[in-house]
Structure formats: structure tokens, C-alpha cells
Design brief:
Elements lengths: L2 E5 L53 H6 L3 E5 L8 H5 L5 E4 L9 H6 L5 E4 L9 H6 L3 E4 L5 H16 L2 H9 L5 H5 L9 E5 L3 H10 L5 E5 L6 H7 L1 E3 L3 H7 L2 E4 L13 H6 L4 E5 L8 H10 L2 E6 L19 E3 L8 H19 L9 E3 L3
Parallel strand pairs: 1-2, 1-3, 3-4, 4-5, 6-7, 6-9, 7-8, 9-10, 10-11, 11-12
Antiparallel strand pairs: 5-13
Helix pairs in contact: 5-8
The chain binds NADP nicotinamide-adenine-dinucleotide phosphate.
Length: 372
């Protein structure tokens, strides 16, 4: 019997929904690169329903309890008195989402004496101290690709919303105004701009592919340069490093994982290399950027806008400056938790658990620490 400790975000303030805006969600056969969708033997949820909140339970309760396991679900994750920290010493498996991360730092992993498996229901496991997980023999897995396109669509929306000055214009309409000049004094066309991504992974590449029809110039820096053939096919221009990307582009989207190399890659000095009026979009991880450098650059006007959905810590304090800095289009961490994304990562979590309980290997592409 396993004790499964699952940390999920709170239910909506008006309660777990009983009806939804749409009747169903599209059925996708495979991911864009051909990788198979999660394939558990069975699911006990309806795709398109809210699964990532406490009452949604990632659709896992029946499966786990029918098989003799115990499921503990909580949103109370921070501090020594939290339910998460109290339950951690007895947990065999922890499940957490990047949107509401149960931070598993070295100290907590020390306490988690029985823990064998940490599952990220989503993509990006930087809330787990990977070195400490390795040291304690904890396998870390995530649902690779489950929300990459969800995030890429969000990035395209954020780029357009910043460049077109959409959010303040919408606010004028809501407030009963008709202030055209107020709306358009910061509105530009994306057409003709230079757009660059830091990292040409699944999200970065999907963003550039989606932007190509906007007749923009596309730039990228990544760990590895792509082939001349691929660059030509997609109209991509290589930048040798982040600094070259910063100097070149009008719009920069950050899509790299948070690592020792990428932490604070965008600091005050890097921002100073950017053109005045650059738009910066970050849906990867907040700590890619120096928090206060972003605020200062928006206040001085060096950055024309900043948008994203990732913060540190999560949830951020009520007075976190990114909530109120000028020309920001920030939201809570939502881009990768659309209802279709939830259906994919909930199915992925179930697939992992089925394999793990059966003593079978977990898909290699899911494994971040440990053996499949
Ligand atoms: P991915 O397919 O694994 O792509 C990551 C890419 O980062 C790889 O292509 C790699 O380059 C590149 N990279 C790694 N280190 C780099 C460095 N130092 N400089 C430049 N490029 C570097 O992952 P993904 O699905 O695109 O996701 C990317 C990140 O987005 C995740 O790690 C996560 O933090 C974040 N994310 C956020 C959300 C959300 O809801 N906001 C959801 C999903 C993911 P090469 O391919 O060239 O080796």
C-alpha cells in the first residue's frame, strides 16, 4: 500500500464547477513531434472538467483506493505547520503541480524518509531540489509535453496583448470610456518586428511557428543550434547567446528551464543591452529574471512591457511588485493548466502510477531524476 500525498490548488471561490463553458474538448491523437499522448489503462474523470483543484483530485481517488492505496489531497503546502509538511514523513509518493508548487527543498527531502517518487503534474520540476532528490534516491518525473502547446498559445496571446496595448484598452471599454487616443498611444503592429526566443524547445519552437504568419523576423538562442535545413524551413536566425538576442529583438520570449545557467539570465545588465521599448514575455520561470531589475526597467521605460504567469515564490506575496508594476500583463500561473492540459497531465500521472505500481518502467521522456 502506498501513501500518495497530492498538493493541488484550491477550488474556485464559488465552488467546484457543476457545469462548464463547453460540452467537450478536442480529441488529439498525438503531440506535434509524434510523441504518444498519455495512455493509462483507464481514466475515472471526464476530460474537460476541472481536475487540478482539490476537489478534482486529478481524477485519482477511485483508482488509488480500489487498489488499496491511500490518497491525501491538500492545498496547504507552505511552512512547517502545513498539512503537506506534516504528512511528508509518511508519504511514499508526492504529486504537485508547478502552478501551486509543493516545494521539495533539501530540508524537506531530508524529512521525507519514505519518499520514492515525486510526480510533477505538468512540465518543469524546478520546485524539487534535483541534487537532493538524487541523493535520497527519489525519482522525479513530469508529464513532458502535456501543456507545451497550451503555454505556446498563451505566449502568442501575451505578445499581441502587450504590443497592441490590449488590456488597458479593454479597461477603457469596461469603465464606460471611448478614449481612442489613450488606447492607441502605446499600440503598435507586430508585423515587421524581430521576435526571439531563449530556448527552442517544445514551447519556444511552437511559439515561433505560430508567429511566422504574422510576417515577423524570427530569432533564437538555445543550448544547441539547429540544422541549416531546419533554420531555412522555418525562417529562423541563430543568435550566439542571450546578449545577442537581447541586442537584436523587439520582442523576447523566455522558454528555457530554470537551471544554474539560466537563473537571473535577465538581470539589469542584460536588460540594458536590450533596445529601449523591448517587450519581455516570461512563461518559463520567474527566476530567469531579476525581479527588481524588471520593475526598474518598466518604470524607466526601457522595457515597454512585461507579461507572463510565473512568479517566485508561488503564490507571491500580496505586495509583490510584479502585481502593480507599469505595463505588465501578469496573471497567476495559468497558461499550462487549461482544461485540456489538465486532462492530459492527469492522464499522464495515472499512466506513471500504473507503471510504477506494476514495477514497469516509466516512459523515458518523463524521467528527470532516477532510472525509468
Ligand atoms: P523542453 O521541450 O524541454 O525545452 C527546453 C529547451 O530549453 C531545450 O530545447 C533546451 O535547448 C533549452 N535550454 C536548456 N538550457 C538552456 C540554456 N542555458 N540556454 C538556452 N536554452 C536552453 O521544455 P518546454 O516544454 O519547452 O518547457 C520549457 C520550460 O517552460 C519548462 O522547463 C518550464 O520551466 C516552463 N513551462 C512553463 C509552463 C507554464 O505553465 N507557464 C508550462 C510548461 C513549461 P536544446 O533543445 O537546444 O538543447
Amino acid at each position: 500500500m502506498a501513501r500518495v500525498l497530492c498538493v493541488l490548488y484550491d477550488d474556485p471561490i464559488d465552488g467546484h464547477p457543476t457545469e462548464y463553458a463547453r460540452e467537450d474538448i478536442p480529441k488529439l491523437e498525438k503531440y506535434p513531434d509524434g510523441q504518444a499522448m498519455p495512455k493509462p489503462s483507464h481514466i475515472d474523470f471526464t476530460p474537460g472538467e476541472l481536475l487540478g483543484d482539490v476537489s478534482g483530485e486529478l481524477g485519482l481517488r477511485r483508482f488509488l483506493e480500489d487498489n488499496g492505496h491511500e490518497l491525501i489531497v491538500t492545498s496547504d503546502k507552505d511552512g512547517e505547520d502545513s498539512e503537506f509538511e506534516r504528512e511528508l514523513p509518511e508519504a511514499d509518493i508526492v504529486i504537485s503541480q508547478p502552478f501551486w508548487p509543493a516545494y521539495l527543498d533539501a530540508k524537506r527531502l531530508e524529512k521525507a524518509r519514505k519518499l520514492k517518487l515525486a510526480i510533477t503534474a505538468g512540465v518543469g520540476s524546478d520546485h524539487v531540489d534535483m541534487d537532493a532528490a538524487e541523493k535520497h534516491g527519489v525519482k522525479v518525473v513530469e508529464i513532458t509535453q502535456s501543456n507545451s502547446i497550451s503555454v505556446a498559445e498563451h505566449v502568442v496571446m501575451l505578445i499581441l496583448s502587450l504590443v497592441r496595448n490590449f488590456v488597458p484598452s479593454h479597461q477603457w471599454a469596461v469603465d464606460g470610456g471611448w478614449n481612442i487616443a489613450d488606447c492607441v498611444k502605446r499600440a503598435y503592429d507586430l508585423e515587421g518586428m524581430k521576435v526571439g526566443t531563449l530556448a527552442l524547445g517544445r514551447i519556444g519552437f511552437a511559439v515561433l511557428k505560430r508567429l511566422k504568419p504574422f510576417d515577423v523576423e524570427l530569432y533564437y538562442n538555445s543550448h544547441h543550434r539547429r540544422s541549416e535545413e531546419l533554420e531555412k524551413e522555418h525562417g529562423l536566425t541563430w543568435c550566439d547567446n542571450m546578449e545577442e538576442l537581447a541586442r537584436t529583438c523587439d520582442v523576447i520570449t523566455l522558454n528555457a528551464p530554470l537551471t544554474k545557467e539560466t537563473r537571473h539570465i535577465v538581470d539589469a545588465e542584460m536588460i540594458s543591452k536590450m533596445k529601449r521599448g523591448t517587450y519581455l514575455i516570461n512563461t518559463a520561470r520567474a527566476e530567469l529574471c531579476d525581479r527588481d531589475a524588471v520593475v526598474e526597467a518598466l518604470e524607466s521605460g526601457h522595457l515597454a512591457g512585461y507579461a507572463g504567469d510565473v512568479w517566485y515564490p508561488q503564490p507571491p506575496a500580496e505586495d509583490h511588485p510584479w502585481r502593480t508594476m507599469p505595463h505588465n500583463n501578469m496573471t497567476p500561473h495559468v497558461s499550462g493548466s487549461t482544461l485540456p492540459a489538465q486532462a492530459r497531465y492527469a492522464a499522464g500521472v495515472r499512466e506513471i502510477l500504473e507503471a510504477y505500481f506494476a514495477g514497469q518502467p516509466i516512459r523515458e521522456e518523463y524521467v528527470k531524476v532516477g532510472d525509468p
